[in-house]
Structures are given as C-alpha cells and as structure tokens.
Amino acid sequence: MVKIDLKRVDEIIDRYKGEEGVLIQLLLDIQNELNWIPREAITQISERLRIPKSHIYRIASFYKAMSLNPVGRHTIQICLGTACQVRGAPKILDRMEESLKIKEGETTPDMRFSLRRVNCLGCCAMGPVVVVDGNYYGKVTSAMVEDILEKYE
Amino acid sequence: MPRLNSKEELKALRRKIVDMRDLNKPYITLCSGTACRATGSDAVAAAIQKELKDQGLTEVVGVRRTGCHGFCERGPIIIIYPEEICYLGVTPEDVPEIITKTIKGKEIIERLLYADPNTGERVVHEQDIPFYKYQTRLVFSGNLWVDPTNIEDYIALGGYQALAKALHELTPEEVLEEVKRANLRGRGGGGFPAGRKWETTRNASGEPKYVIVNCDEGDPGAYMDRSIMEGNPHRVLEGLIIAAYAIGAIQGFVYVRQEYPLAVNNLAIALEQAREYGLLGEDILGSGFTFDVKVHRGAGAFVSGESSALMNAIEGKVGEPRPKYIHTSERGVWDKPSNLNNVETYATVPLILEKGADWFNSIGTEGSKGTKIFSLVGTVNNTGLVEVPMGTTLRDIIYKIGGGIRGGKRFKGVQTGGPSGGIIPEQYLDSPVDFDELTKLGSMMGSGGMIVMDEDTCIVDIARYFVDFLCDESCGKCVPCREGLKRMREILEDIVAGRGKEGDIELLEEIAVVMKKASLCALGTTAANPVLSTIRYFRDEYEAHIKEKRCPALVCKDLISYYIEPEKCIACLKCLKSCPEGAIEGEKRVIHVIDQSKCIKCGICYDVCPPKVGAVKKISGEPVPPPLPEPDRVIERKGRKGGKEGR
Predict the structure, then answer these.
(1) Residues of each domain in chain A carrying CATH 3.40.30.10
(2) How many beta-carbon contacts under 8 Å exist across A and B?
C-alpha cells in the first residue's frame, strides 16, 4: 500500500481555489508532485471542488502526461518521433522491452524502471535519444542499452 | 524598475541600455536551448563561470545564455564578441583554452571552427557557415542576441517598438489592415490568412474576446515553436499584444506543452518582467489599452493542438475537438469570439508592423509571403532549425543548407507536414517550398517539420508509423477517424509482417476516401495523407512487401534475416559475445553462424561487426543460405608457402 500525503494534495488544490477551468493544471501539479495520480487524490479533488469523480477520471485517463499507476524509481523515455524513427529508434525500444521484460507504458515488477515512449523531445540532432531520470543519451544503438540500464539501481 | 508609460519612455530606456553597453567589451554567448542543454551546455556554462572567476575576469567578460541558434547538429555553440568568432561543439574541457587564448590572447582556436567537409577550409564567423549563409533569419535572428530571461536584451534590440507604434500611432483598424495587406498565412499548419481570422474575430459579437497562442507543437520532428518560445518569448508576446489591440481582446492565453518545461519557465519569467515594465497588464505604455495573459499547460495529447480541442482544454474540459460549422473565431473559449494563431505567426507580427506590409510582400512567392522556419531533421548531415524565404527549393534546403545525406547514402524522400503530410520523392526536389505547391504534391507545409529519409528507410514502415501514432492520438469521438485508423493500422501491420494480400492497397485507398470526407476534425481528414502519398510515389515498395514478402530497405523485422557472410567473417567473436540470445555459433578461427531459430532480429551483431569487416548482412525476400559444413568453417593460418586453406 503506497501511502499518500493528502496534505500536499490539499495545498495544491488551494493554489487554484476559485479559478475556473483549472482541473487539468491541478492534475498536472499532482502528477509532478507525486509522480502519479492516486485514487485518494481524485477523491479529495472531487469532494473539495464538487466535481464528479468520473469527470476527473475522464481527464486523467485522456492525457498521456498523467499516470493512474505508480511509477518506478527510474523513468526511461525513448523518443519515437519521426526523426529518431528513421534513425533506428524502434530497435532501441525492442531491446529495452526484451531486456526489461515489460512493454512500453509498463513498470517492472520490482519498481525499478518505468518505460515510456515519447513523441519528439526536439533533440533530433542526437537521435536516437533516450532519457533516463532527466539524463540524455544520444546516438543510442541496441548495443548500448544494457550499459545504460546498468547505471540505475 | 519604474513602469514605462509612453513610447518616448520606451525609446529612452532603449537608448540608456544601449549606451551602457560597451560594444568593445568581450562577451561570450552560449546556446542554451533544450537540445544544447542535452548535449552539455549547462556543464560548459559552469566551466565558463569557474574559469572566469579563477582568472579574475568575471567583471571584465560578459556571459549571455541565449536560446537555440538552430545549428543543433554542432552544439553547444559559443560566439565570442566583439570579433564574432563562432566555436562549435564546445566541451567544458575546451573552456580554459578559449578564455586564455581567444578572450585574453585574441587568438583563434582552429580546431573549434567550422571546417568545410570537402576543402577543410575553416570558417570564423557564424554567418559565413554554409548552414547559416543560405538562410534568411528574420523571425529567428533574435535568438542569437537575447537572454530570454532578461527583457532588457529584447528592448535593446528594438523590442516592443512595434507595439508602441501600434498603440500610439495606429488605430486597431489600421493595425488590422496592415496585417491583412501583408498576406500573412498561419504558420501552424493550416496556412489560413491571419488577417482575415483577426477581422472575423473583431467583427463577431460577444464580449470579452480572447486571443490565444498555440504552442502545443505536436508534430514529431518539429521543434521550431519550442525554440522560439524558449529563446525569445518576448517576440511572441509582443505579437500577441498587437493582435489583442487590433481585435479588441482584453485576455490572452498561451497554451504550452508541459513537455517543454524550459519554454514554460522562460515564458513565465517573460510575462512577469513585461508586467513590471508596463508592457503587459493595465494601461500598457500609457496608451489606455489593458490586456493580460494566462498560461495553460498541455498534458500530452496531440489532438489538443487542434484549435477547438485546445479551447476546450482551456475551459478545463477534456481536449477533444468539436464540429466547426461555427468558427471558433465567432464562438470559441466560453463561447466567445477567440482568435487562435501559432507561435511563429505571432512572432512574425512585430516585424510586419515595424517594416511594413510592402516589405513582407517582397519576400516569398505569390501565394506564400515571408519566411518560414523549418526543422530539418532525419538522415541529413546538418540537423537543425532553418529559416528561408518561401519559394526556396527543397533541394537547396536539404543540400545547400543541410549538407546532403548522412553517410553518403542515397536520398529517398522528404516528409513534410507531420502526420497530416506526405513524403515527397527525388523527382520533386526542385519544387519550391510554398503552401500551395506542397499541397499539390500530396503533402502540405504543416508546422515546418522536414524529415529527410534515405535508402535505409522503409516507406511502408513509415506509413505504418504515422497511422500508429494517429491511432493512439485520435480522440475517438467520430467513427471515420477512430475506426478508419484502426483498420488502416491492422492492414499496414499485416503488410510489414508479411501477411499482406492482393487488394490491401485498394482497401487502404477506399478507407482514406471516407476518412477525408467525414471525419470531425483535421486529424481525421488528413490522417490518410501519409498512406496516400506513399502509395502514390512508392507503390513498388508496397507491392514488394505484399507480393514478394520482401522489404527493399531491409527494415521490417519479420521480412529480413541476419546472415554472416563466410568469405568475410574473421571469427573475431565480437558478435558472438554481444548476441543477447546466444544465437551465434563459432569460436576463434571458426567462422560464425547465426542460428535462425534463435535469432530475434535485434541487429546487435550488425552494429558490432567491425566496419572494415562488414560480414553481417541483412537479406530479404530470399531464403537464408544454409551454413557451411563445420570442417569448412575452420580458418587455417597462412602457411609459410602462403595461401589460406580450409575455407
């Protein structure tokens, strides 16, 4: 059971109190703070802002930046934008999936890695690009994947 | 900083800033857009600060972290003033030498200069580097000289003068006329005349009116808007305020992708500073005009970049499009008249006000005026952001500026217009880049992404990639788009996996017709373009996949096999040791063989085989040759009498 700090959620809700149309911004802040959007946070928002939970779930499930599941200790983002695509990024994704035994969008059972595909980080000159915890790796080849993963506990 | 209350005070402030700046003082500007930060400009910046401190030069040498310069292939980029010496690919280790030799000693470090790939000749100044020489940087030029977190840099360059002119010398109608006369077409992809959209919004009934900046740049491979917003947010803001004045709006929104944290940050700083200086908020520059801006972050949905979807998101609802038989310029955010334009469109407006519509009309083609910024990426040598007059040919952009294809490979096609566009083949390389010309070729200008593809790109796989992307991003509201894309994806996945059949191409074309006619929004109506344009120009590749189960570019995993050529293999064990599945048999001096039943086609053996040996090959459409019998695989050493035996 992951313990949720509802006080933080309350503080974030207070930041926007009174404003119209802030639900997306609020959920983004919670995502940034907790790395995911727990059910308890949705219940909290629903009660305080008098918005139906189904409405909040609709938004949280629509947007890719919002995660309804806890994420791993390290987040791997593989760029699959068109420029990286033509430079061989799909092979890198394949290698990651085979090595970690999870599919893109999932988290390893030991919570070590979450694997996400992203569409264009705008670093096309260094493609294919992989970002782990904000660290950028450029001109990645399948052979480099294991070495990159080994750096993260 | 006291508020500026008139255009005279703005002029006086500019003079004061410029007078205080000693043009002979040594200055280092360091490119610090997101891409350069990814290649190490943060570390270079830290090294510069440290070295200046160690050498006691902090008071004497200025440092300015600017936005993206565009030549992303060779970043981090440093320019040293006043000599304007341009160094490329700078590392922290280079910094002490740069400070000692160039700043103090006025000596140029040759190895950090651009070198012509053919003659080796070195180039000192940025504007002489071929990548820049053939560009016409008007909108993007500010990025070279402005620290985006310091409004005074922008003011020193003449920033906000166009706004002062609009507010104090022109009526809103006159501003509107000027933008209409300039024939400025939207730079976000639609190419709709901006002046006409402004006029519709202005004349629509309903208050308050809104103006919106679309910075939800979603086309993969396009990052022009990010670089403008990160590097020169005041330019965009100035254009937005001018638009608000012309239209009669008092509230503006900027919708920025949350995937662009630096842009979000620099924009927030810019808004704060603009308010402080009286350039935003109440009674701007003492003109009586009041206008302010809110920032709304996107949350990772491509479809939310569509104008009606974006407006829904601003209202806090899910960012899905709605039918547009009533234009958003009449009923947009909260059902009020709303004008939405792209970042680059707004960034062009101050130039038009400053230099005039006639000047703008003198650049470009009959149907497309002005310049356009493209992100030139893919298998091209000089990857980066390129600004050229409309009408420049694709060939000039890809070869003169882009330096041609990487690794000397053969050009196959250039993809423009993102997921709504198409691939243009070699025979049309001399086509001018222009809204209408690109549409005639079955593609479109789009937001400016230009992805170069070579002989190693499988066109059918690219079509599948775009359909897959759009299938994920489709909001799902309307049947033609939702179901059409799903069925197209199934058919294309079958084709690349070797399950394609006769009639697949015709079926794709039939689905495309329905999607084009009946989808709710432009995502759906243009989704078939990548498929249709690739069928039009590369039908032979589709047919090879379907009829011969062959991938001509040797990409599609299910249609290729990896094979080690016995005559070339030197049995060095490299591939054997790297194979994650243990699928390679062999020993030192015994030629290696791939066990096809274990091979997962990861391609690692292909990557690690030494380039001089090149023994690992990809084959497609033909059976893998059976392995040599074991005794024949042993490599005998050369005997004293010479000659190899045993092969």
Answers:
(1) 74-150
(2) 145
